[in-house]
Design a protein that fits this description.
Helices cover 14% and strands 43% of the residues. The chain has 2 helices and 7 strands. Bound molecules: zinc ion.
Length: 95
């Protein structure tokens, strides 16, 4: 039971991509068991600037059902969290 599981419970269900606290929420579905896992990204502390422009963050999510790691790589064009690409390994993007 890690911190991400805690967040999933806390914010689970119907959260939009952006929230009042400035966090960006993403949801992915585990390819192995179908569990939907939500993660929060804090743009001000977690995004890394890319040489070619834009921002990047990599998250590894682990669900509660099968404990497989799902790697998510996200790119944003600016700190306004405009998403330009999303890559999910081990899962499928839900929103
Ligand atoms: Zn799973």
């Amino acid at each position: 039971m890690g911190p991400l599981s805690f967040l999933s419970r806390l914010f689970g269900g119907g959260a939009s991509a952006r929230s009042a606290d400035g966090g960006v929420y993403i949801r992915v579905k585990c390819d192995a068991c179908g569990e939907v896992i939500q993660a929060r990204i804090n743009p001000t502390s977690e995004l890394s600037q890319l040489d070619e422009g834009g921002y990047y963050v990599r998250k590894v999510l682990v669900g509660r059902q099968c404990f497989r790691a799902i790697e998510v790589q996200l790119r944003y064009s600016d700190l306004g969290r405009t998403e330009i690409s999303r890559e999910v390994k081990g899962g499928t993007s839900v929103e």
